[in-house]
Amino acid sequence: MSSLAFKIGSLLVRTLSKPIANTIKSQAKEHPAFRRMCINVAQKMHRAEFRLLGVTKNRAGNVPLHIRPLNDAKAVETGANFLSETFIFSVAGLAILSEYIRAKRKDAARRRQVAETLEGLQDEIVRLNRIVEKHLCTHHRHDPGNRDENNTLSYDFNDLHKVMSHVNTEIELLSASDEDVKDTNQKVLS
């Protein structure tokens, strides 16, 4: 899937999460099982809030304070809001996580491609070294005025020039793609 299609899909899911969260919220208020769950969640949140604030003892500090539970209407509203916001947060978190994983996979694929290309370039360098060694050895053993040898030498140097041009092109492509990856990684992180 292309990057643009993925981002549009992610935006669509995020946009649809708000109406879905509102539906969850309204169903939580009407459905009996959801109502009980909302009341339980809201009461636990209410008690946790008082504990976090440190309001568990009376002013004298010796008698534990009884925390009054929320009324059912307030508890249902609070619990439904919590479920709705949790859903929206989960969708946003999953969208960010999936974008991160996709970027990591793309980077790993690019790294594999670069490694394969570099391996190919190393093979080309070995081949170039063999051609140069061959010509150096041949040149020292034979008469430089020999026409057949000069034709062979010319052919080999043309071959060497083609290989060197190919290696140069590959290195330029790797440099360009490396810059693109750096730009992409910076965009994902920001």
From TrEMBL:
<dbReference type="InterPro" id="IPR010754">
    <property type="entry name" value="OPA3-like"/>
</dbReference>
<keyword id="KW-0175">Coiled coil</keyword>
<protein>
    <submittedName>
        <fullName>Optic atrophy 3 family protein</fullName>
    </submittedName>
</protein>
<dbReference type="GO" id="GO:0005739">
    <property type="term" value="C:mitochondrion"/>
</dbReference>
<comment type="similarity">
    <text>Belongs to the OPA3 family.</text>
</comment>
<dbReference type="Pfam" id="PF07047">
    <property type="entry name" value="OPA3"/>
</dbReference>
<dbReference type="GO" id="GO:0019216">
    <property type="term" value="P:regulation of lipid metabolic process"/>
</dbReference>
